[in-house]
Amino acid sequence: VRRAKEAIEERKLERSLHVGLYEGPDIPFEDKSFDIIVGLQCVYYNLDQSRFASECSRVLKDNGVIFFSFFSPRHGYMKYISGKPGGIVEFTKEHPNPQLAGLKSFLFSGRRQFEQIYGGFFNINIGLEEYDLLEVFQSWFFLRGQKISAVPKKKITFARFSPGKLIRDNSNKKAIDLTSALRNNIGAKEKNLERQPAYFDSLRYPNEQIIRFIARRKSRAEGNHLVFHIGKEVSVTMASESNALEIDFQSLANIMMLKDHGHNAFGVSVNKNLIFRIREELKQQGLPKNVNIDFWDGCSLPFSRDYFDIVISKEAAYCQPGQKLFIKECFRITKPNGEVFFFYLSPRHGYVKYAKSIGNDLYQFSTEHPEPRLRNMIVFLPDKKTLESLWSPFFEVKVGMWEYDFDSVFSSFFVVYGKKVLDKEKS
């Protein structure tokens, strides 16, 4: 708390940010003080969850909301606990994170237990997020709840959407015109921005997996995956004067995060209308010197060789019909020891029900797709081995999985992390 207060004072944010010590179980505020309560990777340390839920309801205004995360019993850390899911457990001294060894927490056994404890105070929705991008398998419950006041209690919702099942059909042996496929996607993106402008306006926050990737770069560089930035809350920059690129950006969120972490931030898009909108937004912010936005024709990236320390994208990779050309371009512009971070839709994603095979792991979304921005788009939907074989000739690569079921459709992505190493450079 002391370090947080010092950081707030240094940034002159005393009027808008307030921090204090919470020792539980009572929350030290008057009734109906807040509209929102958020607690990520912390609220499970309240060992009396029923009392904590009651306290959250007390300090929330009518129709206020909560958003909390909890360990699930599938998390990799569960091998280091004494006790069983459904109650209080303790992390053992063998835990790889010394800050957690010996700590007690409340481990929910499953979604129904949330109903028993939180359902009496909130209309709740329970989701699950899992990913294997780190050294330890991550599995988290997410609780979203709205305070029950005079409004009749709604049925509790468990966001357990079924994974998609892609029917592979590569019987079409006809050669695919990759140039035409790319033109199709560029044209679709221009039209889809007009169809769904609210989607692009809603992207005000950076992608959570990209946040984790950027935040852990310093740890990877030091060869220590348990680096904690204690005492550095005011300014945690990974590297000064380094260049970072987001390919086919959808908003300024990821780009501005890169800037705030000390990078020269670049963004390219095939969508000229979106570029115009983003440049106008930058003008309103005073045109930051280390933010650069440019047009990309979908083929050759407009940068010289060995230019970037970081290359990221949430959507560019799976919207590229010509994967080999795209990967070679990423290799060309990345510095030796530079890193890339890309997402691909997996065959388990709920969107695959709207995809029709056109051959060679390429699929076209129908005009009935629930997301107007993706209608008629041609996407690359590979399996994990295919991705590894495509990227490994150029990068030291790891392909992970990221899935969650707390949106309106089951979401499943392959995540490609690659590092450009010298032996790949020579080959």
Instruction: Give the quaternary arrangement of the chains.
Output: single chain
Q: Structural class, please? A: alpha/beta
β-strand percent reads: 25-35%
Order of helices and strands: HEHEEEEHEEEHHHHEHEHEEHEEEEHEEH
User: How many H/I helical runs?
Assistant: 12
Shape: globular
Instruction: Profile the largest sheet.
Output: 12 strands, mixed
Percent of residues in helices? 25-40%
- Name the poorly predicted regions: 223-239
How far is the first residue's CA from the last residue's CA?
A: 51 Å
Mean residue pLDDT: 86
Number of strands: 18
Radius of gyration: 23 Å
Write structural notes for this entry:
- With 427 residues, this protein is an alpha/beta fold.
- It has twelve helices and 18 strands.
- The strands form three sheets. Strands 1, 2, 6, 7, 8, 9, 10, 11, 12, 13, 17 and 18 form a twelve-stranded mixed sheet that branches. A three-stranded antiparallel sheet has the order 3-4-5, with no helix packed on it.
- The termini are far apart.
- Mean pLDDT is 86; it is low at 223-239.
In short:
By secondary structure, this protein is an alpha/beta fold.
What is the topology?
Layout: H1 2-10, E1 34-39, H2 49-59, E2 60-71, E3 81-82, E4 87-91, E5 104-107, H3 111-118, E6 122-131, E7 138-147, E8 157-158, H4 178-195, H5 197-202, H6 208-215, H7 217-221, E9 242-247, H8 253-260, E10 263-269, H9 272-284, E11 291-295, E12 308-313, H10 323-333, E13 334-345, E14 355-359, E15 362-365, E16 378-380, H11 384-391, E17 396-404, E18 411-419, H12 422-426
Parallel strand pairs: 1-2, 6-8, 9-10, 9-12, 10-11, 12-13
Antiparallel strand pairs: 2-7, 3-4, 4-5, 6-7, 6-17, 13-18, 14-15, 15-16, 17-18
